[in-house]
């Protein structure tokens, strides 16, 4: 391979070579050529490693997989001592799709974009920085790190995040290093996050009831399976409430379907605001809602059910003519506690639903506007 071809290959790989005139090819240049060949081979291996990692990123099917690749696997891929990710998440799109944020100690979700703007200024670009000096805002909190690369994540002209690669060696990300590879990586990471955000938004649309804006029956079935599994694993209680609007057909017939729709929306949103973020509020079908309450005792579940029943009966709901309506609820409650013997999860789910449903029928048979508890039976 000629020296010019080596030089061309190195330049394509992003390395910085000294300016070498054509007339200076003395025998001593043979060692230089060998060194350049070695450097070219190293750069080729680095490039292949980046390409393999980028393909894995592009294949990621959701936030969890993408975050695990960036915040865990990348350490070995790029021989890093630390990695950190900041993401602009004003609508909590990322937060609500991560089951346990505590699992990602090196992930920072930002409600505002100012910290990102402070990092990069008006024109975001890859920065190689020394961590020995004071930075504002500070990246990492590891005194052993000496250098870092800051990769801005930009989509459609908007700075949406920042990926930080840290090293103990002060020369790893020195200013004389080429940034071609990590510039490209930053673009790929930004594209991947845009893709998974769009995927999650579509997924969210498929899991929510358009009228009431709470989760639908499909989402309930998935949540029930997940929560039964979690309760079994952690030996925790799991309560289920079935909530049915009393005489709802009469409301539709007497006041019209727009009034009925309005009533459903008001009740759903009111219940949703009363519960914890870890609880699941779902429209089970028609005028019936299912409330799944993880780690909730029977006593607490009954207290919540009674509070919901009482507050909904006092909600101001009006028909199209401005006339007020009286809404009441019949609520069935049941609770499952994992036993010492193993039980098939699908069977647990089926029995828990049946017991809560029996509670609703019992409440209606006793005159409606009441709460009935049905004990879970193995």
Describe the structure.
It is a single chain. The protein has two domains: 60-204, Beta-Lactamase (2-Layer Sandwich); 217-373, Reverse transcriptase/Diguanylate cyclase domain (Alpha-Beta Plaits, 2-Layer Sandwich). It is 46% helix and 19% strand. The protein has ten helices and twelve strands. It has helices at residues 3-12, 29-59, 63-77, 114-120, 180-207, 217-234, 248-255, 257-274, 298-313, 345-365, and strands spanning 82-88, 107-110, 127-130, 147-155, 158-167, 238-245, 280-285, 288-294, 317-318, 324-325, 329-336, 371-373. β4 and β5 form a beta hairpin. α2 (29-59) runs antiparallel to α3. 29% of the residues are buried.
Tell me the fraction of residues in β-strands, as a range.
Answer: 15-25%
Shape: elongated
Helix and strand run: HHHEEHEEEHHEHHEEHEEEHE
Write out the strand line-up for the largest beta sheet, numbering strands in chain order: 2-1-5-4-3
Count of DSSP-assigned helices: 10
List its traits.
Beta-Lactamase, diguanylate cyclase activity, Alpha-Beta Plaits, alpha+beta, 10 helices, 378 residues, five-stranded mixed sheet, elongated, 2 domains
Summarize the structure.
Its cofactor is Mg(2+). The protein is an alpha+beta fold and 378 residues long.
Give a topology summary:
Elements: H1 3-12, H2 29-59, H3 63-77, E1 82-88, E2 107-110, H4 114-120, E3 127-130, E4 147-155, E5 158-167, H5 180-207, H6 217-234, E6 238-245, H7 248-255, H8 257-274, E7 280-285, E8 288-294, H9 298-313, E9 317-318, E10 324-325, E11 329-336, H10 345-365, E12 371-373
Parallel strand pairs: 1-2, 11-12
Antiparallel strand pairs: 1-5, 3-4, 4-5, 6-8, 6-11, 7-8, 9-10
């Amino acid at each position: 391979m000629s020296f010019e071809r080596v030089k061309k290959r190195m330049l394509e790989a992003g390395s910085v070579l000294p300016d070498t005139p054509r007339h200076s090819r003395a025998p001593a240049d043979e060692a230089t050529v060998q060194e350049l060949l070695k450097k070219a081979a190293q750069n080729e291996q680095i490039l292949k490693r980046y390409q393999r990692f980028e393909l894995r990123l592009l294949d990621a099917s959701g936030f969890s997989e993408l975050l695990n690749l960036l915040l865990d696997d990348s350490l070995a891929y790029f021989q890093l001592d630390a990695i950190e990710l900041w993401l602009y998440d004003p609508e909590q799109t990322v937060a609500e799709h991560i089951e346990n944020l505590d699992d990602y100690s090196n992930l920072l979700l930002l409600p505002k974009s100012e910290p990102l703007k402070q990092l990069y200024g008006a024109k975001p670009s890859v920065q190689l920085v020394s961590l020995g000096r004071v930075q504002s805002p500070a990246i990492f909190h590891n005194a052993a790190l000496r250098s870092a690369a800051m990769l801005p994540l930009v989509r459609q002209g908007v700075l949406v995040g920042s990926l930080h690669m840290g090293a103990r060696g002060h020369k790893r990300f020195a200013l004389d290093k080429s940034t071609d590879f990590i510039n490209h990586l930053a673009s790929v990471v930004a594209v991947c996050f845009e893709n998974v955000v769009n995927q999650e938004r579509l997924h969210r649309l498929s899991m929510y009831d358009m009228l009431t804006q709470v989760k639908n029956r499909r989402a309930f079935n998935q949540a029930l399976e997940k929560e039964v599994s979690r309760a079994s694993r952690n030996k925790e209680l799991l309560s289920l409430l079935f909530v049915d609007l009393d005489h709802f057909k009469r409301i539709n017939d007497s006041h019209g379907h727009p009034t009925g729709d309005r009533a459903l929306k008001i009740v759903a949103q009111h219940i949703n605001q009363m519960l914890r973020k870890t609880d699941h509020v779902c429209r089970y079908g028609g005028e019936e809602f299912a409330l799944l309450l993880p780690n909730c005792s029977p006593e607490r579940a009954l207290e919540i059910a009674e509070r919901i029943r009482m507050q909904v009966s006092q909600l101001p709901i009006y028909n199209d003519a401005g006339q007020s309506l009286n809404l009441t609820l019949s609520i069935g409650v049941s609770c499952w506690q994992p036993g010492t013997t193993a039980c098939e999860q699908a069977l647990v789910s089926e029995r828990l639903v049946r017991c809560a449903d029996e509670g609703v029928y019992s409440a209606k048979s006793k005159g409606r506007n009441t709460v009935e508890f049905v004990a879970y039976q193995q």
